Amino acid sequence: MSADVRILAAEPGCHLFGDNGCGFEAPTIGMFFPEPWFANIPLSAGIDLYLVLLVVAVGASLLLWSWFSKKLSLVPGRRQSVAEMLILFIRDNITRPTMGAKGDSFIPFMTGIFTLILAMNFTGLIPGMLPVNSNLAFTVMFALTIYVMTIIIGMRNQGGWGYFKNQLFPAGMPKVFYIIITPIELLSVFLIRPVTHALRLFATMFAGSLLLAVFAYGGWYMLNLTAEPMLAAVSVVFSGAALLGYITFFVFEILIMVIQAFVFTLLASLYLSQSLEAAH
Amino acid sequence: MLIELAAEYNILRIDWVKFTFGAIALAVVYFFVVRKAVPKVMKVLDERHDAIEGGIERAKRAEAEAEEIRQQYREKLEESHREYAQELEKAKEQRAAIIAEAREEAQTEATRIIEAAKAQIEADRQQAVVQLRAEIGSLSTELASRIVGETLSDSAAQNRVVDRFLEELEQDESAKQAEVR
Q: What are the boundaries of each domain within chain A?
């Protein structure tokens, strides 16, 4: 059961110009906390809609790529061309600009997380559903994975202490500056960076679906065909405006979902590039 | 009510169950998409790249080979031209040599024949002279004896007479020859 349908069902007959006198109730953050089916897990909301949507997103990613990667030939068909375009897009817009040709070994990984994050965002496009990434746990998981990878790869490429030295004491500046630079770098690289990496994706998905919900709820609230004919006509106009807004923001949201998946992957690539070699 | 909601619904709380499932999801995608599917597509991409590059490479190699063969052919042609010219030159020389040799041989042979002929003639003449002298001697003696009517028994005197006669004769002959010339 989806969030807004559940809330709508809980408040029946509450409409503009209604006679039962109840006002508009905006969607709350409660919509991001669907009723769990299995709640008896300590320190957790339990098994809920998010995990089902996660399975859907993973299934979609796997299906897409198993479809993309079957019956490949040197002379590509349309399906293979799209797959190759996606890979070349990742290569030319994500790994090459950040890591150069050395980063070519990261193309599959970047393609994989881009696909998965995009699928996890796109679940929000199913009417009444939520983007999986509107829950912080998933974006933190992604960001933490990248964070751990940057540290491990950095230590492997620049030596155990070398990576931290290169990050905290950037080469080529007077030693006095390190008094200021080092704490800033420590905060920004090892604390703020992973947090913003996770929060950015979460916040945009969260805000985007909340915005869409406001338009959906408002449109539904304003539609009152049982009122006086004159008022009913007005309500239809209001509701139509809300629907128009909903459609506009729906399209806009698709764009945001793609951009955020791209930005997350691009930043992951950028952070990893600093592990491959010290910044100049 | 809002505060209550905020307390109940903390959007910044990280749910470890969701975190774990998310990690499993990433692992699954890593295993099937990152490790299997994408590299498969990329391999074909690389193969195509190789095939195109390889085709160009092969064409270049074939072109170079053709150029090399053409060069060899040209060299061979030039060489055979040169050889032909040399052969021609040699043949000319040989011809000249043969002609010269033949001429020399012929000259030698001619000289030899002439020499032999001269010798033969000389010998014949000598023989003729000797024979003639002997014959003339005896004839003259006989004639003289007949004319004189006496026998010249004295052979020394006889020889003297004959010699004198012959000398005169020869002188006459030389004079005659000189006249003829």
A: 31-276
